[in-house]
């Protein structure tokens, strides 16, 4: 087995172990509560994968996770820890909704790209702030981006309660976007829409750009060893800035995809914690676009399954946070410890062989 | 004019210290951990754990002091995990903090739902009363501001003094600082760097437990999801803003507390939307970091895991390969 395949298999094994660990912890919690864990997990998986509408819901919820996760993967790959996804997502969604409501009379093929572009610009600019502060002044981007999350979310909530509130609505919510800004559905009986296809397209584009072009090569080089790439003539700062802006833009897109895809209007706290969930997605996907795609679908499925589980079993959806936390920590741990599972298992066999050989002798 | 009157009332200053207490306790904890060389962005999760377990303990035992104790235990659990991940497994400490914070959110809100149901309207637990220090609390102005606070505020001040003495006046404190600046040198001097870092991170957990308890057990006496709502990050910012010194971090925490107290009072005077007030603590922290800080330099070995035998292992390998 070549080195790359071996690393891949090891990685998959570590994910399986992480998942088993997470489910073991949840299972223990459920047993303690007197809930049947097997039945609960069955409900979870049934809600996630069984049936057209459940599957559609899973892919629907996966869309923003894939988009945002790609952005996080890019920024982490380049060594810039943008954890401001939450604020970027809210501002992006806000921009898209505003454009979707206020631009009247545009054909859909113009309206939809404008909304998406608006969300990318807002998300990207919001990410530019911590990025600029990091690159020009050396401020820790994690602190600044987290603080900006709260500022961004409160700003959007303010907008939805005042100048951008649907007149006469009881809740704090925006007006409905124009029909020309709504994405069309691609699966009957579910809300799944073209934003999922867009996410797939962006995954492919990301893969091509990141692995097959000059810009991608430089981005990877900066992430691998910033000092070496700087001395070899790469404009490191430029690429770091590019990475964080793109990651913000993708987070913004993750927000607008939800509004334009199926919510069609914005309510306060419309997408709680997604900005942190995408970090779990990126790490689970090994910071690789294809991995992010799979991890995004998986976590989306868990999310959609969890709501079914909550209805059927009365187990709160918040167990997802436990699962995510355990996954992040164990995947980090396993990849850092660099355990060679294949070697371990192989080693066990070899030991047995040598023991049996010793017995024979 | 009405606005300026805020600053004349003892009420404002008293609220400042009350609101600064959790920030200060967590920031002091952060100073300990960071000075020993372990980045601690998981303050948020630890405060949340402290807040929930403090509430839980106080509710179950119907005793606020046992609540404070369970708060520290709950927070310690997360701190131990943090220490294990950062010191033993040596993972990226920023990303693991994200995992720890998510885990804390999951543990607290899930346990809360399991134990109190989804629509339990605020089962309240015993809380702490303000402790009036005799004679001193009767002083005009200064009395209510400084000497009529809840016990954890006094604890924060005492801990600040103790920590300052410990860090800069004892040899153990010197060792702790050395662990964060030049662990290799400390190791050569025969001091166990790993042990110091473990103890430091666990102590941070205890501090954050107190911080969490000071959120739930001093008047609120209940719990809700994500109760800490970013205070851990503000505390972390206080550590950075205070340039990694206990006094600096405490002053920064008091500044941020004052911002919080100010926004609560301004709400009644100005007709500015509520959301901007909610935003203010984060915005003030952000601008404090950006405008008044200059290039901050933390402990040199902060966030770099310590490898004990790095040098020796390398020379061993070299000799094995036949070179010298």
TrEMBL record, chain A:
<feature type="transmembrane region" description="Helical">
    <location>
        <begin position="239"/>
        <end position="258"/>
    </location>
</feature>
<feature type="transmembrane region" description="Helical">
    <location>
        <begin position="12"/>
        <end position="35"/>
    </location>
</feature>
<feature type="transmembrane region" description="Helical">
    <location>
        <begin position="88"/>
        <end position="110"/>
    </location>
</feature>
<feature type="transmembrane region" description="Helical">
    <location>
        <begin position="55"/>
        <end position="76"/>
    </location>
</feature>
<feature type="transmembrane region" description="Helical">
    <location>
        <begin position="147"/>
        <end position="164"/>
    </location>
</feature>
<keyword id="KW-0812">Transmembrane</keyword>
<keyword id="KW-1133">Transmembrane helix</keyword>
<protein>
    <submittedName>
        <fullName>ABC transporter permease</fullName>
    </submittedName>
</protein>
<feature type="transmembrane region" description="Helical">
    <location>
        <begin position="314"/>
        <end position="334"/>
    </location>
</feature>
<feature type="transmembrane region" description="Helical">
    <location>
        <begin position="278"/>
        <end position="302"/>
    </location>
</feature>
<dbReference type="Pfam" id="PF02653">
    <property type="entry name" value="BPD_transp_2"/>
</dbReference>
<keyword id="KW-1003">Cell membrane</keyword>
<feature type="transmembrane region" description="Helical">
    <location>
        <begin position="116"/>
        <end position="135"/>
    </location>
</feature>
<feature type="transmembrane region" description="Helical">
    <location>
        <begin position="192"/>
        <end position="211"/>
    </location>
</feature>
<keyword id="KW-0472">Membrane</keyword>
<dbReference type="InterPro" id="IPR001851">
    <property type="entry name" value="ABC_transp_permease"/>
</dbReference>
UniProtKB/TrEMBL annotation, chain B:
<feature type="transmembrane region" description="Helical">
    <location>
        <begin position="274"/>
        <end position="296"/>
    </location>
</feature>
<feature type="transmembrane region" description="Helical">
    <location>
        <begin position="151"/>
        <end position="168"/>
    </location>
</feature>
<feature type="transmembrane region" description="Helical">
    <location>
        <begin position="97"/>
        <end position="116"/>
    </location>
</feature>
<keyword id="KW-0472">Membrane</keyword>
<feature type="transmembrane region" description="Helical">
    <location>
        <begin position="12"/>
        <end position="31"/>
    </location>
</feature>
<keyword id="KW-1133">Transmembrane helix</keyword>
<dbReference type="InterPro" id="IPR001851">
    <property type="entry name" value="ABC_transp_permease"/>
</dbReference>
<feature type="transmembrane region" description="Helical">
    <location>
        <begin position="198"/>
        <end position="221"/>
    </location>
</feature>
<keyword id="KW-1003">Cell membrane</keyword>
<feature type="transmembrane region" description="Helical">
    <location>
        <begin position="233"/>
        <end position="262"/>
    </location>
</feature>
<feature type="transmembrane region" description="Helical">
    <location>
        <begin position="64"/>
        <end position="85"/>
    </location>
</feature>
<feature type="transmembrane region" description="Helical">
    <location>
        <begin position="38"/>
        <end position="58"/>
    </location>
</feature>
<dbReference type="Pfam" id="PF02653">
    <property type="entry name" value="BPD_transp_2"/>
</dbReference>
<protein>
    <submittedName>
        <fullName>ABC transporter permease</fullName>
    </submittedName>
</protein>
<keyword id="KW-0812">Transmembrane</keyword>
